[in-house]
Amino acid sequence: MAKYLPLFPLSIVVFPGEKLNLHIFEPRYKQLVIDCLEQEKTFGIPSFIKNGVGTYGTEIEILEVEKKYGNGEMDIRTKGLEVFKVLHFDKMAPGRLYAGGEVELIENSYEEDVITKIKIKEHLKKLYESLGLETFYLDLPDNFTSYDVAHHLGLNTEQEYTLLQIETEAERQEAILQHLLQIVPIVLETERLKERVRLNGHFKNLTPPNF
């Protein structure tokens, strides 16, 4: 189903369910936020990628205005809802300062693959332990989705944008697992290399071989 949304392009990828805090300072986006609050509307954040507004983005709900400043700037708390595809983009929505566009919400399947999820957890544990980020793993709920860990995989913005376009949880899980299978051995080897560098130059208590 298509609908028209105010659009706020940013050089980030926002995933469904993600909490995002924004400081609003540009006049056009102050107007966007005020319009959304007054009309109880959502807005969209399409990813600005490769020097252009991407075709995909996420619908955003404003949860609350955390702070208002004397100059009209605001700190707002928001949450990602659903992924959309931009069908038509207007640099300026009719009669407004901000961009807008006709978007189509993506029919997203959240049916997961249990075996793949177990493998993802195993590799995430190795990754976070090797990086000294065990708390990330300990804080991970059993019912986590791909979106919950997407920003904690070492993906660059283009890779996150690719993940945003995948329409089923099982396929997203497979993409994440393949990424982890590639990077975890590299990270582990880097940690071993760092340890060898640290030990080099220390006095070594070595047992000579018998020959």
From TrEMBL:
Record field: transmembrane: none
SMART domains in alphabetical order: LON
Name the UniProt record assigns to this protein: LON peptidase substrate-binding domain-containing protein
All residue ranges annotated as the Lon N-terminal domain in the record: 4-182
InterPro entries the UniProt entry points to: Lon_prtase_N, Lon_prtase_N_sf, PUA-like_sf
Organism: Pontibacter locisalis
SUPFAM superfamilies to which the protein is assigned, alphabetical: PUA domain-like (SSF88697)
